[in-house]
Amino acid sequence: MTDATAGPSGAVSRASVVRVGVATALSALCGYAVLYLAARDLEPAGFSVFGVFWGAFGLVSGAAFGLLQETTREVRHPSAGTAHRHTRPLAVAAAVGVAAAAAIGVSAPLWSAHVFVDARMLSVALLCAGLAGFCVHTTLLGALAGMGRWSDYGALMVTDAALRVVVAAAGFAAGWGLGGYLWATVAGAFSWLLMLLVSPATRAAARVQTTGGTATFLRGAGHSMAAAGASAVLVMGFPVLLAATSGDLGATGGVVILAVTLTRAPLLVPLTAMQGNLIAYFIDQRAHRLRALLAPSALVAALGAGGVVLAAVFGPWLLREAFGAQYRADGALLAWLTVAAVAIALLTLTGAATVAAALHRAYAAGWVIATAAAALLLMLPLDLEIRAVVALLCGPLLGIAVHLSALARDRDGVAPTYAAIDD
What we know:
Integral membrane protein, transmembrane, Poly_Biosynth_Transport, disordered C terminus, 423 residues, transmembrane helix, cell membrane
């Protein structure tokens, strides 16, 4: 693709998946490095405070992933190469980011005391700034995915993750404590500035336009962001949900948060990072969307089954050896948390297929129902560990049913819930 107005050029080939897969692996290693440094530097109670902020940023940035999904779909759609263009996604994303950051800042006095028990002012300020930057970051990822610029897509991912590690390592060495890891959490949200300086393809993606007006783009993005926000509660913001339904989590909460994070990361980090690939793949397979789900679902299930065994056998030992003797969890808990991670991974797949079909309301409904069910299940009068497993396993199953039902009804590949699209 040589200019910013050409149609999508990069098919979702095996090579493109490999490139993004390598970037995902590097990003995952960087994420593990940040968690490792924080767990080593902070005691479990302190790690639970960091974990809540990590989850809070994951929640708001996860909602911003709706911009990636809608930008990918709009740029990738076959009509995007022939119709007159009206909207610059990056400009819209910048405005959305500033508005969202302002909303968080203004409303912070109402909720921050219930979420952040330490470094409250710094947490709110970093949350606002990080979200504003991440809205641009994720939209740029969506434009690169829609254009098929997979190498630049992967480079932007790795730059994000690497900046986090650099700041976390500096904080660990300098003894900054909790504050250093809060800064590290949001550092990558501005990695797009570096990519704009060094990558012509990224600059072209920043200028790309999509069909339809701004209102049309925002309508689709709004549905996607609502669903992405609900998914972020389960995928990244679960510590926040846990804190909201359990009060002070203490040392037990720190162990549960770390266990949840470690057992889901091998599946959910790659799937989240490859949202652009998945949506582009399902758009290209729009005549057989349900059939197209079979292969990736089988792969997720197979990898998950292996993960369950490894978590049960080696998980408790790995947790103690890697993070310290104070982090103790039995094999059964880690195995069930891995099963729950498989359920969320499958929900992520069905969600990608649904948003690719422009079934925005069904996509949002599936994730919102899954999250609401999980929140309700967390209120059961059970031990914290059992509540976490039940919520993370049962909620996603309801969401999967919603998505599959919508895809089964959409046999013609035409989405009745979105602005008219020429398939």
